[in-house]
Amino acid sequence: MSASDLEVAYGGVPAGKEDVYSKQPVLSARKLVITFGRVVGLDGVDLDLYPGEVLAVIGDNGAGKSTLIKCLTGAYVPDSGEITMSGQPVHFKKPQDAREAGIETVYQQLAVIPALDIASNLYLAREERRKGPLGSVLRMLDKKGMERRAGDAVQNLGIQTIQNMGQAVETLSGGQRQAVAVARAAAFGSKVVVLDEPTAALGVKESGMVLDMVKQLRDKGQSIILISHNMPHVWEVADRIHIQRLGGRAGVITPQTHDMGEGVAIMTGATKLSQDSAA
Amino acid sequence: MTADVSSAAAEFARRQQSPLQRIQHQLHGRPWLSPLFLLFVTFVAFFIATPTFLTANSMGILLQQTAVVAALAVGQTLVILTAGIDLSVGAVMVLSMMVMATLTKDGGMPGVLGLLIGVALAVGAGAINGLLVTRINLPPFIVTLGTLSIFTAIALLYSGGESIQQEHLPGLLNALGNDFGIGKFRLTWGIVVVIAIYAVMSFVLSQTAWGRYVYAVGDDAESARLSGVPSKRILLAVYTVAGLVYGIAAWILIGRAGAATPNAAPTANLDSITAVVIGGTSLFGGRGRLIGTLIGALIVQTFDFGLSQMGVNQQWRVLATGLLVIIAVAIDQWIRRVKA
Ligand SMILES: Nc1ncnc2c1ncn2[C@@H]1O[C@H](COP(=O)(O)OP(=O)(O)OP(=O)(O)O)[C@@H](O)[C@H]1O
Ligand SMILES: [Mg+2]
């Protein structure tokens, strides 16, 4: 692929990262279609996520952002289209399949269990058992160990107001719940982390922590998809920005080549991103 | 937050509470206390009303009577924890019992084989409920309302409506009705089996990942699925395990009743649901503990037994049980309303 091809297909290539974008995407989707009865959720969407990048996804309400990432993470099965991870086709039937393939997700509705405590939520569906026959024969959970490690994960995120890992999630504030969901996605060192509006309910300080965490994950080589309506956040952390519009991809830009105003104009359909101006 | 002695919150914490508020607080912190408290009150009331109530003999009989409902209520608790309900409890038990008895009647088949087939049938019946709920996505209420009639009808057709008396059955099928003494108490092996079921299932629910999934699916099925919990598999397993428990209850019932009767245990469904609800398990799923159910079953039976000892007739006992449910749930709601 020549450099100009890359620019058309992937938006601008950030300076000094040309080598990354000539590599294989860690996660890639082609012509995803999903319909809900007569409602068209996705109308042939393409997406590429490269190793070690933050790909932001922006778009109006109902543009299909959440639907897109649900298709990528096994929560929905697309009607047609294909998804590959590092070039290999994948067919996720359920969220657990995507997780096992190395994709962690914070869904917009958080998907935490209110009645369970924080530690149980963090380790839900990846519980650790006790050592020895208690674990292998009786299948007893290592509650203490999980609680301790959950505490560390939440501490790493810097959420000081959450102290007791045995507290039921339903007793937490909205922002604290969101922090638990984010900690759950970040704590297990997956290849890809998908965050659907992870800062929507967070205060200024907590939002900053989540953005810092996103940068840290990237620096460790993980790839992140970040959905957000907060343009300053997007322009702060994103390497590239996928613009979703009316169930399709309107284009891909970078914070270097387009400013927020231009991004929003494309998002709302005020301007079109022509193939040549993609870079 | 650490308590600051001079803060408004600390001031509030030191406020005067009425004794009633204090009780409310205590019960709120320990949900299993409220059914236990109710059980205690019931005991005291009956002890005052009938002097023969609190004798070793009566207590032994009370426990024996509780065994069947307590066993059924384990299955019912599992199903209700997943935000479902099982109306086919009694029907599955009776069908299983009639099959066990008919197969082994007058030495027709070895007891072990008949027992295994009967229990396997109950497991199958539970699995059918589970498949209808998970594959066809029917509400549990509708599914088990349907299978209630179907299993009841099959049990009647299969047995020809005839009871089979103890004498015609192999020793193994009657074994859980045999008793032994601890001091002045006479306990049956059925009681021992019930205690074992409670011990095993309490462990599974509180100590294993499977138990956590049961709560998660009942609390929020979609979030559980998105979190990677195999929701449908868990639901199917819950109904199947419930069937297994009903099969064991059938065995206990033969020993207890001294016969296999196709119209036995007519109140089994409602009694099991009552035990679960009084025991503090939420009908909306995701909240509750098995120990509460055991206490709930004891309350239901104590009520019935105590009233019958006082010479109250059947109709009034049923009426009293109805009142008991409403009062118990009302008290439970009151406890949940506690502030802080
Ligand atoms: N399960 C569903 N059933 C029916 N329609 C759906 C379903 N999920 C999504 N849709 C529809 O798909 C379209 C895209 O929804 P989606 O949730 O992906 O939007 P979004 O871009 O995430 O919006 P927001 O910014 O509000 O979160 C909407 O028209 C929505 O009504
Ligand atoms: Mg959305």
Total DSSP E strands of chain A: 10
CATH class of the largest domain in chain A: Alpha Beta
* Total of helices of chain B: 15
CATH topology value of chain B: ABC transporter involved in vitamin B12 uptake, BtuC
Give a quick account of the main beta sheet of chain A: strands, pairing sense, barrel closure. Answer: 6 strands, mixed
Q: What profile does the largest beta sheet of chain B have?
A: 2 strands, antiparallel
Gross morphology of chain A is globular
What is the CATH-assigned architecture of the largest domain in chain A?
3-Layer(aba) Sandwich
The radius of gyration computed from the alpha-carbon positions of chain A, rounded to a whole number of angstroms, is: 19 Å
Q: Biggest interface and its residues per chain?
A: A-B, 26 and 22 residues
How confident is the prediction overall: mean pLDDT of chain A?
Answer: 88
How many domain modules of chain A? 2
Helicity of chain A, as a percent range: 25-40%
**Radius of gyration of chain B, in angstroms, nearest whole number:** 22 Å
The span between the termini of chain A is 16 Å
Distance between the termini of chain B: 14 Å
Number of strands of chain B: 4
Helix-and-strand structural type of chain A: alpha/beta
Tell me the structural class of chain B.
mainly alpha
Please explain how this structure is put together.
The complex is a heterodimer of chains A (279) and B (340). With 279 residues, chain A is of the alpha/beta class. Chain A folds into two domains: 3-102 and 189-268, Rossmann fold (3-Layer(aba) Sandwich), CATH 3.40.50.300; 109-178, no CATH class. Chain A is built from eleven helices and ten strands. Chain A has helices at residues 3-10, 18-21, 65-72, 95-100, 118-122, 133-136, 143-156, 174-186, 204-219, 231-237, 260-268; strands spanning 27-36, 39-49, 54-58, 80-85, 88-90, 103-106, 192-196, 223-227, 240-245, 248-253. Chain A is globular. The relative contact order of chain A is 0.18. Chain B is mainly alpha-helical and 340 residues long. Chain B is globular and about 80 Å long. In chain B, the strands form two sheets. In chain B, strands 1-4 form a two-stranded antiparallel sheet. In chain B, strands 2-3 form a two-stranded antiparallel ribbon. The relative contact order of chain B is 0.18. Chain B has helices at 8-13, 19-29, 33-49, 56-81, 89-104, 111-135, 140-159, 171-174, 189-207, 209-219, 221-226, 231-257, 268-278, 290-309, 314-336; strands spanning 164-165, 179-182, 185-188, 259-260. The model of chain B has no long low-confidence stretch (mean pLDDT 90). Chain B has one domain (31-336): Orthogonal Bundle (ABC transporter involved in vitamin B12 uptake, BtuC). The chains are: A alpha/beta (279), B mainly alpha (340). Chains A and B meet through helix 4 of A and helix 10 and helix 11 of B. The complex binds adenosine-5'-triphosphate and magnesium ion.
